[in-house]
Amino acid sequence: MKKITALVLSLLLCFAMAGCGGSGSDQAKPTIEKSVDALAEYLELTDPTDSFFAMIGAEDGKKYEDGKIEIYKFDTASDAYKDMEKNKTIMNMPVAGIKDGMVLFIQDDYPGDTEGLTKKFNEVEFK
Known about the structure:
Layout lengths: L1 H19 L10 E2 L3 H7 L6 E2 L9 E5 L4 E5 L5 H9 L1 E2 L2 E2 L2 E3 L2 E5 L7 H10 L1 E2 L1
Parallel strand pairs: 1-9
Antiparallel strand pairs: 2-3, 3-4, 4-8, 5-6, 7-8
């Protein structure tokens, strides 16, 4: 009887320990300030230049990497942002990422890792 009780308790302990293990996917996402400059710093972009962000209805925006990458900040309630969210384009050109009012555009001829930048953009959370 003691052997059966010990075996049952051992199995319960094994299941309890297995249930406490994590898959590693519950890691906290990086959180940054919701601004063009903070996102550019997080994405490690260089060479900032001004853009005509107001022409597309954005609140702020800059170009980076010799103009190959653009980041814009929109009011999420604006028609311009809603249209961009729906169509996934800026002036009929596809965007790389749209999230919480922030938009990432990467030109086709950008020589860097576009998939890596897009993944990093999609992983970040904004304050």
